[in-house]
Amino acid sequence: MKFKLLTQRHSDDIYRFARSILGNDADAEDATQEILLKLWDHIGGIPVMKAKAWIMKSTRNHCLNMLRTRKRSAHVISGDDGLLESLPDESSREPGHDAYVQTLRAQIDQALNQLPENLRSVFILYEVNGLKYREIAETMDLPINSVKVYISRSRLKLKELLAKEALI
User: Chain centroid to CA 152: how far?
Assistant: First the structure.
């Protein structure tokens, strides 16, 4: 029962986070399955209160290992990876709005991909997956103050990158 609940709650988070690191759907799907298998194997040893942090840390480590073994750098990810596509767009009511939103998302994805891996990971964990500072600190093996600094730096860098595109 615990496994089913954790899977239902966190599968999408695992996929989005893996996609942000790996840059494509197929690798993100593979990583998601691997993490769910790892979760199944370790379900008895994971404290309930730290399950999300454990899952996200495992996802990050697995994805970084995938990148290392494929001799790819986390900084070289295509700009059209569609990181934010999986997020719902409830404001899309006007005909031209969909095209605008797609263009905006592509530009945001491109800006996110220009961030160093550590800043991008912290930003995605906080802003997209909704982890708390403490959970991010556990996931990334960082002090909480570093998490706060990384979030601040990632926001400033994104603002700078998006300003170049005249989006803000």
Answer: 17
pTM score of the predicted model? 0.65
**Cβ-contact 35, 59 below 8 angstroms:** yes
Mean pLDDT of 142-164: 92
Q: Where are the strands (E) in the chain, listed by range?
A: none
Q: For the domain that residue 113 is a member of, what is the CATH number? A: 1.10.10.10
- 3-state DSSP call for residue 109? helix
User: Cα 65 vs. chain centroid, distance in angstroms?
Assistant: 16
- Asked if residue 113 and residue 59 are part of one domain, the reply reads no
- Joined together, the tokens standing for residue 147 give 């998490």
3-state secondary structure of 32: helix
Q: Residue 40 sits in which domain range?
A: 1-74
Give the containing element (helix H, strand E) for 122. Answer: helix 117-123
The CA-based angle 18-23-27, given to 5 degrees, is 60
What is the rounded end-to-end Cα distance, in angstroms, of the chain? 46
